Amino acid sequence: MMKTQTVKQVKVHSLVKIALLAAIASIVMYAEFMIPMMPVFLKMDLSEIPILIGTFALGPAAGVVIELIKNLVHMPSTSTSFIGEIANFFVGIAFIIPAGYIYRAKKNRNGAILGLVAGTICMTTFASILNYFVLIPLYQTVLGLPMDAIIGMGTKANAAIVDLKTLIVFAFIPFNLLKSIIISTVTLFIYKKLSPILHK
């Protein structure tokens, strides 16, 4: 009986932590900002920081749940017919899953760094492929945005962007690399300070 109660308490505590981190991530996602020399539709947000912290503390499955809740919270206010939120979810888990599994196998600073590097590579690669083959065609079909208009927004920010391939190379790849590096750096700096609280 005592053991059952302890297991239930652990589950409740984990759910509370997941809910709290999801709430923080949802709020942080609203604080998006533009990056110079990037198209206006690429806006930076740092909501992956609380999700990564949750992933390191509670495991990759918890990180996926936090990522999902964050995007579900944002769906009612979407202006992209849910495309942006679905993309954010899949790109986010491409980052947190490799980072989380590597850190779980090697729970020290080197493991965290290795996981974050792997997550950065996976996220940047996956986001590039997803945008090229799926998301940009979806924006054209669902939102009626012509390819010329999408490329034009890129050209306005960076004259080197003249077609879809250069949009990926000069916008999506550097954007996701920069985002991953910022998120990884902040996570490395604050995780150990928050870890004792999350493991109570």
What characteristics describe this protein?
80% helix; 2% strand; mainly alpha; single chain; 7 helices; two-stranded antiparallel sheet
Beta content comes to under 5%
Using the coordinates shown, work out and report the CATH topology.
Arp2/3 complex 21 kDa subunit ARPC3
Rg from Cα: 18 Å
Secondary-structure class? mainly alpha
Number of domains: 1
Shape: globular
The side-by-side strand order for the widest beta sheet comes to: 1-2
Largest sheet: 2 strands, antiparallel
What are the secondary-structure elements, in order, as H or E? HEEHHHHHH
Intertermini distance: 22 Å
Helix content: over 70%
Structure description:
By secondary structure, the chain is mainly α. The chain has one domain: Orthogonal Bundle (Arp2/3 complex 21 kDa subunit ARPC3). The protein contains 7 helices and 2 strands, in the order H-E-E-H-H-H-H-H-H. The protein has helices spanning 2-30, 48-58, 60-74, 83-105, 109-143, 147-157, 164-198; strands at residues 33-34, 43-44. It has a two-stranded antiparallel sheet. Strand 1 (33-34) and strand 2 form a beta hairpin. The longest helix is centred in the middle third of the chain and has 35 residues, at 109-143. The chain is globular. It starts with a helix and ends with a helix.
